[in-house]
Amino acid sequence: xxxxxxxxxxxxxxxxxxxxxxxxxxxxxxxxxxxxxxxxxxxxxxxxxxxxxxxxxxxxxxxxxxxxxxxxxxxxxxxxxxxxxxxxxxxxxxxxxxxxxxxxxxxxxxxxxxxxxxxxxxxxxxxxxxxxxxxxxxxxxxxxxxxxxxxxxxxxxxxxxxxxxxxxxxxxxxxxxxxxxxxxxxxxxxxxxxxxxxxxxxxxxxxxxxxxxxxxxxxxxxxxxxxxxxxxxxxxxxxxxxxxxxxxxxxxxxxxxxxxxxxxxxxxxxxxxxxx
Length: 276
What we know:
The protein is mostly helical. The chain has helices at residues 8-12, 20-33, 38-51, 54-69, 77-81, 95-117, 124-141, 143-153, 158-180, 184-197, 202-231, 238-275. The radius of gyration is 35 Å and the shape is elongated.
């Protein structure tokens, strides 16, 4: 067994049981957080390329298990040696960086949303894909930072409260984007989340509540229109029904008159024949 065994799980803050999705999401987050550290990025890339490959990871896991038995891993300093802060390993001195990153992500995210909403002529398929892309940017960019700020600063800290309000505004923008894409149920969910994050900010809370009420009204209107369309002609207006009844009566009378005319003709012909 080599003495310089590298614990790629520790480098990424993962475990032997982490899923492929965990590997993918953690890599994206850590790569963004270590953009200025070439050494860290190099080790992250090595870890990612190995752990995302099922065959390579399977072989590595066998070596990993043996290394655990031999006491070669289980060392929490592995990631720190490479200058990487894996998930859950954050220090108070990182707080300013996290807050700044949150604001940067929000600014970029807000610009992305505003630029897309201004594209009023875009088709619904494009709008839906754009909304999904924006949600993905938020979840992989801003969202992980909120949990870190809570862990480092505390749930009752000003930093965490301010971060929550910033996240509420970002999620509210997501709601607007889903409304733009006419995906109203998703928008409703976003506005609900924004309301939960708004905390004691009364202005933001009121804004979220109004958006929720408006979205519920839109959903009801859409359901009502869909119900009428599904029923089709069975819900024909009363005036149309009356008109239809009159049409039937008219044609019955025409038939009766035609029958009487034919009867008179037959009688006339019989009289003519007998008189002849």
